[in-house]
Each structure stands twice: as C-alpha cells, then as structure tokens.
Amino acid sequence: MHLSTATRSVRGSAIRDLLALTARPEVISLAGGLPAAELMPRARIAEAAAKALTDPRSVQYGETAGLPALRAVLAAHETGRCGREVADVVVTTGSQQALDLVARALLDAGDDVVVEEPAYVGALQVFQAAGARLHPVGLDADGMRVDDLERHLRDGLRPRLVHTVASFHNPRGVTLSAPRRVRLAELAERYGFVVVEDDPYGLLAFDGAPPVPVAAHSDRVVRLGSASKVLAPALRVGWLSGPPEVLAAVELLKQCTDLCTSSLTQAVAAELVADAAWFDAHLAGVRDATAARARAFTAAVAEHLPGARCSVPTGGMFCWLDLPGVDTTALLPRALEAGVGFVPGSAFAVAEPAPSSLRCCYASHPEGVVDEAVRRLARAAT
Amino acid sequence: MHLSTATRSVRGSAIRDLLALTARPEVISLAGGLPAAELMPRARIAEAAAKALTDPRSVQYGETAGLPALRAVLAAHETGRCGREVADVVVTTGSQQALDLVARALLDAGDDVVVEEPAYVGALQVFQAAGARLHPVGLDADGMRVDDLERHLRDGLRPRLVHTVASFHNPRGVTLSAPRRVRLAELAERYGFVVVEDDPYGLLAFDGAPPVPVAAHSDRVVRLGSASKVLAPALRVGWLSGPPEVLAAVELLKQCTDLCTSSLTQAVAAELVADAAWFDAHLAGVRDATAARARAFTAAVAEHLPGARCSVPTGGMFCWLDLPGVDTTALLPRALEAGVGFVPGSAFAVAEPAPSSLRCCYASHPEGVVDEAVRRLARAAT
C-alpha cells in the first residue's frame, strides 16, 4: 500500500508508545503528560452535561467556529490575559487540533519553522506532517534563547512560524522571561513571521499569576489555549486567537477536518468557565495541589538523587532532570523494572539529543506517590 | 498574511454558509444535512454520561486509536455488516475526520482521485486540501456509473482512491446496486486503487436491511462509519475499518491531529451500541420516523410540484429534485422569502453544474412541517 509523504515524514510519538509500558499497575508513571484525573471536576461536569442535555441543540451539529456562548466567554478570558481586546476565538478539538490547523493554514512543504530544542513532540509531528524544515533554537532557565533566534534571523533565516511553549515549557519546565517575550514580539514584527504561542499550562502558574502572553505585545501572534489541563482532556476543547485571516483559514480547514467540535462538551466547558467564582476556586485548587506535587518531586530529587540537576518548577506539569553520566534511554528498562516510568530526554530532541536528561510529570500523582517514584528512580540509577 | 496552498485550494462549503440564512425562525430549512434532534436519545445519553463519569478514566486522555470497549463493539458490528471478520476499527472525531485522515495518509499533491458527480461537499473539500486531481464519475438511479469508471480505467486513469457514498447517497439519494458493488470491488483489485466507502447513512435503510457493504467483496476498501445519524452528532464519534497499514497510518496522523477522541463521548457511544436490544429498538424508531418523513416529502412533491422529478428515497436523509426549466440558484432567495430553504444542486458539482436541481433534507422535521415546506417551495417556484 502506497502511503503519503506526510505519513512517512511523521515520527511516531515515543511518549504515546511508552504509555502502554507504563500503564502496568505496578509502575508509577511520570512519563505521560497526564493531568491528575482526581482533580478534574467530574461531578460538576456530570451536572453541566445533564443540564446541557435538556436542550436539543446539545446533541446536534454546531457552528464550525464553535458554540457562541463558549467563544464569548473564552474571548473575554483572553482579553483579560492579554490586557487588550481579543475580539474572537475559534474553538478546536483540543489545542492539538488548533496547532495542526494553524500549520495546515499557513505552511507549504519546504517552509522554514523555528521550534524549541527540546520540543513538544506533538508540535514536531505537526510540522513534520506539513513538510516543514525545522530550525531548533535552544532554551535556558529563561526559556527560548531569543538572542540565538535573532542571530539566525540576522544570518538570513526567514521562518514562516516560530513555535513556543512560552509558559511552563513541555518538556523543559522553564518559562520565557518578560523581556524575551517583548523581544520575540518585536522580531515577529520586524521579520514578518508568526509566533505560535502554545499555552496549555499558563493557568497553572503556582503563584496564581499567569505570565503576560507574548500576544500582549504583537498582532503577529496566534495563541493556543486548552481546557485539558484545567478542566478535563475528555472535553476535547481547545481554542485559538490571532489575526482574523488566520482564524478564517482555520475555520475553513476545520470544515474538512471534523465539521465542528462536540456541542455537548462545548456547552459543558462554557457553563464551567462562565461560572467565574466556581472556576477560580477550582483553578486555585488544581494549582495548589499541583504545586504541592512539584515541591514533593524536587524535595525527593534533592534527597534521593543528589547528583541530579533539576529545573525549578513554577507552574505546569513537568520537571527536566539531568543525571550527569547516565544514559537515560538505557536507564528506562531498569527503571520500569524498579516500578517507575519517565521519558528519556532524547524523545524530545530536534537535532541535539540530550542523552543524560529525562522528563518527569509530577502532576499525575499525590505527593507520597511522587516521592516513592523518585526513590525508585534513584534505586534504578545507582 | 501568506496562506498555504491547501487553504487556497479548499472551496468553502456553500451549505455551511447557507445554514446561517436558513437558521431564521420563519424559514423551514431543508438545506442542512441535520438529523432530527428530537429523535436523538438525549435522556439515554445523559444517563450513560452520568454512569461513565463515575470512572476517572472518562475525563482523561485515552488511546489514540479509541476506547477499547468501543472499538470492540464497533468491530463486531462491522463484522456482522460485512459478513466476514473485521478485526479492528480506529475511532475518529466523526467520520469526517476519518475521511480527512485517510486522505492525508494515502494522498500526495497531484494524485488522482475519483469522486461522484454530484458529490458530498465535505469529501471534495478534503481532496482539495490534499491537492488531489479530481475525476468525477456520474450517478444514475443505481448509484455510481461503475461502467463509466471502468471506461476511464481502461483509458489509463490510475486513481489512488475512489470515493463513494454507496448507500443513500448525499446529495443524490440513490444507492449503489449489488452487482455494481461487486464490480467496483473487482476493479479495485485489478487496478490497485482503494475504495473509500463513506457510509454514514447505511443503518437508515427504511426496510431495516442495510445494503451489503462494498467492503464485503474486497480487502481494498476503507469503510467509514458514523454515530452522528443514528445516535447524535455531538458525540463526534466516527470510525474506519480497512487494511491494517491504512489503520496504522491513520492512527499515527491522528496523534498530530487531535491526540484522541473524547473518552467521555466514546464511553457513551460504547454503552449505547453495546446495549443491543435498546440500540435495535432505537434504530427502528429513527428509521420508521425518517421513512414517514420521506413519504410525506415525496407525496407533497407529487401534489404540489407535479412537474418535478424526484429521487425515490429508500433510506438516508436526502431527496434530489429536478425542476425542469428552473434555475434553482436564482430560486433560492425567492424560496427563503417564502419561508423555505434548500441547497441548489450546483453546490455539489465537481465539473458539471446541475442548474435545475436541488437537494432537500426531509429528515429534520415532522411530516406536517415537511409538507408545508414543499408547499412553500411550490409557491416560490411558480
């Protein structure tokens, strides 16, 4: 059977493949980017679903761009986040679909795209499928090395898109500093590229103050948001805001892609986000619980893996560990045997494998389990 | 802003644009392909959702290929339909996503694809986005003119895919005859193409006996199914079966597209389809109600539009009317003024506009409303 160039260009997600291994009940998985199911508001979702289902429109096809009530409340939210009016959003089937549709809307095969090194694997897959030429730019404790990006631009690189997980990076755990956000926006204006600000974790800022978006500083930013980390992945509700012509192109392509996102799960999301008092309290609960897990993780690393370098979590779901002298790909089978799963850093590599690094998701388990996971990891590593 | 070739290749759906016009409360819309919301089992969906939400897995990410329980029950269903073992299905976010992913998995820009004339607009959009070269083959009362297809093949056409809505065609209302199904399968084997058997309406056979699928006769068929017309569009549950390498490619591309379909709506669909006694009774109810609406439609056409030619509905949701001497695109604004909406036949054209034809969906309204809609159409047309 002849398969398309796109199919042959996409590297399967090592992480999704790993999930099967780490799903064994005796393994504590720090591998998946799974928000904690027990922190998701199942009772409130059931209540909102029952209420939505009293209306026949909840089971019907809906507008491709999304349920008007949800679009309105999300646009108001984004306006608050960006400190300037965000007139409209398009709702997507998770923010992964937003990313895919933005790539399909803006990229032709051979176009240049800047990605972070290491990168969110789902973004690499999207750009591989689009046939883009990837140009990695490294990260440090302040996020993307915007100075390195600027050097590439001065040297003649003219990317169509620059993709960044600016807040609480997956997999590196770092956040783009405020001055770098301003600079990145300036570069977008000067060199004519579009920034894709992929922001599923921003609302999980442990101090309760999400970073000011890159989109606050330029019109050349497409911002992607998601309900998956703050309500539930099973709603499959994501959204994007940005230049009107990008939104129009995404809406057109969404017609061919899945016609519309579920009217039912959109009604649930609208109900929950519009109930501001409830939503703020819920968010605070998720944030505080996740912060406690992050503290448990870093404390356990300091105690049991004293030689490790560990990113400092200030939000989101991930820590990036470096175990000097350890090959983490070789470590993984031993770790699984010891009852703990993680993702080797090289799974996120664009051009530069990180053989001694690994990504751990601390968000999926309560503190005691997180601590036990790190103990097991330490046993396997020594 | 530079937009991609794909974006510039897709023609917006005239039908989706029409929905705004026909949504005015004084207009009876026969335009949308909307199943009747009042026939959808809202109470049963609410019950199944409440039950699913007692399990934390219902709100979490799930496997890309779909919820195992749903895949199993759908594979068993397909096995029954095809009369031979269908080992596996991949669940998609509606069957529109299945179509899009099959195209992305198998097509490169410039590949030849055979479509029906007139065609399902969502399929045309998918193939336009893929950059395919479209080759239309006409339909008659027995569905696709497979003899015409064969002539093209003998003349040297080597399509990668042949797309067909073989049962209760959208928009033409006709069904591919049993001998033509066998012949189409033989041609797929001989000439090495893949048949995409797009089958959202098969279970709505008014006599309760869905046509034997094309996939019963060859391994070179990808079959697409949908819960939208038999349960509810808002579940966004579709599926595909076919050659294992196609399913594997689709699963890989689905990782980049939306990671997974909603665990919650999949659990609801699994619960409802697995309850065979309930599902059969529910299906019979939808089928009978839809058949009554179809009879009301054709009776009203015979009475009020005596000059019209009308397809004979035996299942599904659509009638295709021809009003000799009438330009249906010019008729539409007058019809909307008279309080009825439809889709002009030319909206479905690939190469051959059908200026005096129109598509009517009889499934969305009770018999009395359908009758009134045809009266209004007759008033506008004369």
Automatic annotation (TrEMBL), chains A, B:
Domain of life of the native organism: Bacteria
Molecular function via GO: pyridoxal phosphate binding; transaminase activity
UniProt xrefs under Pfam families: Aminotran_1_2
Organism, as annotated: Pseudonocardia broussonetiae
Protein family per UniProt: Belongs to the class-I pyridoxal-phosphate-dependent aminotransferase family.
Start and end residues of each Aminotransferase class I/classII large domain: 28-377
Presence of keyword Hydrolase: no
Name recorded for this polypeptide: PLP-dependent aminotransferase family protein
Subunit structure as annotated in this protein's UniProt entry: Homodimer.
GO biological process: alpha-amino acid metabolic process
Cofactor section: pyridoxal 5'-phosphate
Chain coiled-coil ranges: none
